[in-house]
From TrEMBL:
<dbReference type="Pfam" id="PF07366">
    <property type="entry name" value="SnoaL"/>
</dbReference>
<dbReference type="InterPro" id="IPR009959">
    <property type="entry name" value="Cyclase_SnoaL-like"/>
</dbReference>
<dbReference type="GO" id="GO:0030638">
    <property type="term" value="P:polyketide metabolic process"/>
</dbReference>
<dbReference type="InterPro" id="IPR032710">
    <property type="entry name" value="NTF2-like_dom_sf"/>
</dbReference>
<protein>
    <submittedName>
        <fullName>SnoaL-like polyketide cyclase</fullName>
    </submittedName>
</protein>
Amino acid sequence: MQTLSEKNKAVVRRFNEEFLVKKDLTAFEEIVAPDFINHTAPNGNGDRIATRDFILQLLHPAMPDLQLEIFDMIAEDDKVVTHKAFTGTLSGPFMGHAATGKKATLRIIDIVQLKDGLYKAHWSIREMITL
């Protein structure tokens, strides 16, 4: 039987792999609660729709060959912390960086709060490294 921490980590991994990388909207709808709030949204509006649109309309066009590496996940109580990196070719503008046509890495430390297997809140620290 999985512990709550293991279940929460599986949800976070699914969100990262299925929605963030593969753009699977079914995964997004099944995982993100209606009242979700992204406390560190780069575009200022942290509701669930703005979060979805940021990934689909800004991240993926900027890095169409997006790949993900998860270095570590730590879960405690209702939170999961993920240390990860996205890499891809910076083909469009993204978070103040102009398109370069070169590989770029977006390193992130996320904190996700879950309730009943759903994303309720999110905080992150992001660092863009262009090569």
